[in-house]
Amino acid sequence: MNSLKFLLLVTIINFSLAQPGYEGNENLYIGNVDGKIVKCLVCKETVKEVRDAQAKVDPKKKAEVKAGRFNLDGSLSGQLIEFRKSEQYLTELFEGDEGICKTMDDYAKAKYKSSGKLVVLKMFVDGGMNPLMSEVDFVQDQDLNKSLKHYCLEVLDEFDEVFLEYFMAPALPKDLEDKICNERTKLCKPEYYEEVEVEEEEEVVEKSRFEEEL
């Protein structure tokens, strides 16, 4: 999704808020959310965005890495690796407003209607509107979701070595988001979701009781 589409969506939300009698029940949730949980979710989405960006680079494109050994002519010897796994490519991807964190402009904070679970949702996927949008209420706060990009830059600045370690490796683990955001950076903690899990369990119990009564 380009920034223009997201700006249009934000404009629509703000217009709805300004209307007299608006009760906040039309796919919009008013209120602040825990910044630590948002940062955890942004970490996981950043991992996905880096993985997707890396996958789009032709694996046949190579970069030379100096090995630290001198040739007879005095030049450093080197070896060729996939450009997409080079420190040069990844460092450029991680840095600046035009790097991978620019993708956070396409995301918004929301809560699932069924469970109240917080999510950082990508607004458009595969050229169309994300089908999950009908299942959530958007969280409208003062920063208009600008904090998502800030958190992304903060995560990559603080934990760039962890990201480089995994994305420069020959293969990526299947549970890459958990490896980076849970185990290594400790940005995601189990207690963030304990309350949500309890709510979901209570919903299941209530549903079972209702079915028994029928």
UniProtKB/TrEMBL annotation:
Q: Where is the signal peptide?
A: 1-18
The record's section on Pfam families has: DUF3456
| Record's GO cellular component terms | endoplasmic reticulum
InterPro entries given in the database record:
CNPY, DUF3456
Q: Which domain of life is it from?
A: Eukaryota
Residue span(s) of domain DUF3456 = 39-188
Its recorded name reads DUF3456 domain-containing protein
Q: Which family does it belong to?
A: Belongs to the canopy family.
Question: What keywords is this UniProt entry annotated with?
Answer: Signal
Report if keyword Ion transport is assigned: no
